[in-house]
From TrEMBL:
The chain crosses the membrane at residues 7-29, 49-71, 91-112, 118-140. It comes from Pontibacillus litoralis JSM 072002. Keywords: Membrane, Transmembrane, Transmembrane helix. Pfam families: DUF2975. This is Membrane protein. InterPro entries: DUF2975.
């Protein structure tokens, strides 16, 4: 992979991290307060929903760190290594955790009759995105694992 492409992807990872971090720090709390004031009958869900959203940020940032490590492996020509396979596995598990959190959150909101259709659509988009990321990283992980095993077998026969 060209060096410029790896640098572009690293910049994208950093920008995504900054945008998500600043949204969590500066936009999410006022938005939650405004929503609680707008719908006082659901004000008791203010902090549980915030806690749930912040809980999903932890595996998201962990996955970003793993993506950064994967890009570093690609940069130093170690794309086909066990380190890359394990980074893909961690990204896959983070996507699964995020998807699970959103399913639990949407079920919890449905039981409280507080799941607005707009929130449900956003939650479903995030859920299906997590599923796609899980499937994509699982396929990449299997492909890389096969390449690494073939490389190891070739090294042993020589």
């Amino acid at each position: 992979m060209k060096r410029g492409m790896v640098i572009f992807l690293k910049v994208a990872v950093v920008v995504i991290g900054i945008v998500v971090g600043s949204l969590c720090a500066f936009a999410l709390p006022p938005l939650a307060t405004h929503t609680a004031e707008l719908y006082p009958e659901f004000a008791y869900l203010h902090y549980p929903v915030l806690l749930g959203l912040y809980a999903t940020v932890i595996p998201f940032f962990f996955a970003l760190i793993q993506a950064w490590r994967l890009l570093k492996n690609i940069e130093i020509n170690h794309a086909f290594s066990t380190l890359s396979i394990s980074a893909l596995g961690r990204i896959k598990y983070c996507a699964g955790i995020i998807g699970t959190f959103y399913v639990i959150g949407m079920i919890a909101l449905m039981t409280q009759s507080a799941l607005h259709p707009g929130i449900a659509i956003i939650g479903l988009v995030i859920l299906f995105s997590s599923i796609v990321i899980m499937l994509f990283t699982a396929v990449l992980q299997q492909l890389l694992n096969g390449v690494v095993q073939m490389k190891t077998e070739n090294d042993l026969t020589i």
